[in-house]
Amino acid sequence: MVIKNVSLDIVCGITSKLPDTNRPEVAFAGKSNVGKSSLINGLMNRKSLARTSAQPGKTQTINFYNINEAMYLVDLPGYGYAKVSQSEKEKWGKMIERYLHTSKNLKAVFLLIDIRHDPSANDKMMYDWILNNGYEPIIIATKLDKLKRSQIQKNIKAIKEGLKLSKDGIIIPFSAETKQGRDEIWALIDELTGL
Ligand code: GTP
Ligand code: MG
Fold this sequence. Notes:
Elements: E1 6-12, E2 25-30, H1 36-44, E3 62-67, E4 71-75, H2 86-102, E5 106-114, H3 121-132, E6 138-142, H4 152-163, E7 171-173, H5 182-193
Bound molecules: guanosine-5'-triphosphate and magnesium ion.
Residues 30, 32-38, 52-54, 56-59, 77-78, 142-143, 145-146, 175-177 line the site of guanosine-5'-triphosphate (GTP).
């Protein structure tokens, strides 16, 4: 995808009605602070259109980024953020599930996992949610620049095993610092959205 113009078009809170965009959507899920908004900025060639923060819990809405008036990148709120109350977590879980369940235009769901860590119980639950909604989760191993080269293959293997990825399950390492992995992710999005 050659980026011509991008804009934050739709922001949904817990009580919002989810939009029917009539354009292909791909969504990004993952633990709070894993790098979803940073990845979306990297894909859009923008530094800070998607707001990022060193503090987890930055994105608390479902944000639809319009790419070239052709499709949407959808930034989901992160899960596993300790400071949020249990009832708030449940509301968000339901909202994300509702989005995965009802979007007519959702073509793919990317699940982000920090390349330095084994998948958590929440990551595994999210993986299963995505699967149960009929999508094959595409894994992005984030913060690649934080790992020594010699550790990369070992950690990718651990993520694959932790999530019990199928043999042809896809996992793409990505760094928002170096943009390594960006072209591969776009190639996949182009293919999945038919653009
Ligand atoms: P929530 O909105 O809270 O769910 O978080 P998020 O998943 O959107 O994470 P965000 O993109 O805000 O990034 C969290 C922190 O990690 C920020 O301080 C980013 O700068 C940092 N970060 C994200 N991706 C990378 C990366 O590839 N490399 C490095 N070194 N830091 C990263
Ligand atoms: Mg975010």
